[in-house]
Known about the structure:
seven-stranded mixed beta sheet, single chain, binds S-adenosylmethionine, alpha/beta
Amino acid sequence: MTDAEGRVEPSGVWATAVGVARVRAMETAREQPLFRDPLALAFATAGGRGPGTPPPPRADEAARRRWLGVAFSIVIRTKFLDDLLDRAVASGIRQVVLLGAGMDSRAFRMDWPAGTRLFEVDTAEPLGFKASVLRQERAVPRCERITVPVDLREDWPGALAAAGHDPAQPTVWIAEGLLIYLPEDAVQSLLERVGALSAAGSRMGLTLGSRGVVERFRGDAAPGSAASMWVWEMPEDPVGWLDGLGWEAETFTLRERAEAYGRPVLTPSQQDEGAGGLISAVRATH
Ligand SMILES: C[S@@+](CC[C@H](N)C(=O)[O-])C[C@H]1O[C@@H](n2cnc3c(N)ncnc32)[C@H](O)[C@@H]1O
């Protein structure tokens, strides 16, 4: 389906990227936002999810609250990964790969040192939709931006290499809001491939679904909603898991990052939060 501008309408898993843009647009409109994402409004509006449109109906108050929690987590994780990227370029990294880039506009909104090359990997439909909105907004990237339309369950390393990624140079990889949509074997294979393309000094930022999240949301997930497509959540020991994949990882909880960013979660923890799903990792040297 296309809209009046000839844009493909968001559907399937990539529609979730438009939902994320909606949340970022709302954060950008706040008085003291944790980040400013001026393009988010255009992405959300073009995808029929502008801030003026009502959110999808929720089954009950508990479901509404759960979704407010998801929106909050998107804001916190965006800030977390912005900071991680700032540190990565400060360490000298000049290659950035956004896996499942969706409507991520970091190429346009962050400060990048000269010589930075940023690869956006996602399937062709969202990248086409994004290109159309970027044209409409006359958006200009602040680094060299290269889009790589490919499915991450296929030969994406080949596509990334063809697009100019240099595995001999360190890379900072971001998988934000992505892994939860991939089956376990696809997650494992994705990270093994990332490892194989990561020179010494590479870094990685991941967001992992917290343990139990798939089950908690499944009950009232409407067909086609983001939660209806969630399949994978973090292992019990994410640091050990990533160690086995060649990464020295640190985990952070949403609660502690929110506190650090001056947006404390005011409700008491309902359950044992365990290891956090915000991951900052450095390629192991051993
Ligand atoms: C929730 S969105 C997050 C987008 C972006 N990382 C962000 O945080 O703004 C998930 C994204 O993952 C992408 N994605 C999911 N499965 C994928 C696959 N198999 N190959 C490529 N992209 C995929 C979707 O198209 C979508 O853009």
